[in-house]
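User: Teach me something about this protein's shape.
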Amino acid sequence: MEHITSPAAQVIISLIPIVGIFIGGTVIFFALLWIHHENKQKIQSGEKTQRNFNYKAATLLSGLLLTGIGAMLSFFFTVFTGLSPSILGGLIPLTVGICLLLFYRLYDWKNDSRSADN
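Assistant: First, the predicted structure itself:
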């Protein structure tokens, strides 16, 4: 038995992702605009203080997380689908994670002005 979807239903189904992306983008835009105006007001009133960001810890954390996630996804896709293009879903985060860990290990953090207070 063949089930044929009506053209009107196909149009509605194809519009759902477009509308969802548009609404999500609008919400993100206005959230960023709100944060921008808050920061601008804080700077004008003198309340805004400079936050220090720990690049060293962020690089290590991102590298470890991406390496772990990429290794597990690669293992999962290899076991269940064999060597197929789906394995890239795990190899890409694995490679990015390894690159971040190499950057963490090889970068000269002592001569970086940002790492002085970190």
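Now, about its shape. The CA atoms of residues 16 and 22 lie 10 Å apart. The mean pLDDT is 89. If you'd like, I can walk through any region in more detail.
User: That's plenty for now, thanks!
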